[in-house]
Amino acid sequence: MAAVIAKLTEADRLDTWEGQAALDLAQQMADAPAATLSARAAANKELREAMALALKGVGAPTSSVQEIRDELARRRRERAQGAV
After folding, report:
1. Residues 38, 76: contact at Cβ < 8 Å?
2. Between 26 and which of 4, 9, 69, 71 could a Cys-Cys bridge form, CB atoms 3.0 to 4.6 Å apart?
3. Single pTM value for the model
């Protein structure tokens, strides 16, 4: 669970719906340790896919236009959270 949070936070994807979906799957896995082996394998596969979707594009080179959009999005998030 902590590793998922750390990875999503590092990628600035924790507050996206994709990041929240991955976090939800990780929480469900943590809450159900007595699941069968096949259920755990399926849950691991789903978590891998959710993390891949949440982290898609992280670390990819961006254009200056994309950097401006990212900066605006960051400022809007901060303003919405009250951190002017």
Report:
1. no
2. 4
3. 0.65
